[in-house]
Amino acid sequence: MALETGDLTHLETAMQALDRAAELLDHLQTLAREEKETLDPEPTDLRTVTEAAWCVVETDGAELGVEGDTTIVADRSRFQELLENLFTNAVAHVGTDVTVRVGPLEDGGFYVADDGPGIAEDDRDDVFEMGYSTSPDGMGFGLAICEQIANAHGWVIEVDSGSDGGARFEISAVDRCNGVSPDSV
Length: 185
Description:
With 185 residues, this protein is α+β, with helices and mostly antiparallel strands. The protein has helices at residues 2-5, 10-36, 46-56, 76-94, 142-153, and strands at residues 42-45, 63-66, 71-74, 99-104, 110-114, 156-161, 167-172. The strands form two sheets. A five-stranded mixed β-sheet has the order 2-4-5-7-6. Strands 1-3 form a two-stranded antiparallel sheet.
């Protein structure tokens, strides 16, 4: 359109499309890498990785609460990526006034919960599918990547309602390091 009309304002739309295509390619590259990458599991502190992931995500005033002290067996970088995707998802779907809580589950796993509107029960089976998104700006890769990372660890990731009514992602079948801190390994 810009070439045909000489109106350079059409270039803005083209630039937005290129940015979206680049983001899509980044997500596809991440998915392809995740399938081939081997894990390097080690004792990993839930609080430390949670706080590191939170610092990477653009949270703009959102709040984080971490409960308990838990050490799990995980590939730290992949585990952090899983948390980053869950945090990004919460901020994207709830907004910057969201509060996200992370903590241990009784069975050895952990949860990530927000105080947003939650995920409709009918949609819960679909949220991990590639390309599924309820946001017009969403690509639908973040939760698919989370499931892929969880599966690579041998974990199970499920979504339910949180106590605040928001979304609650529970990751189970996680090995805990009983009495072993990441610093002592």
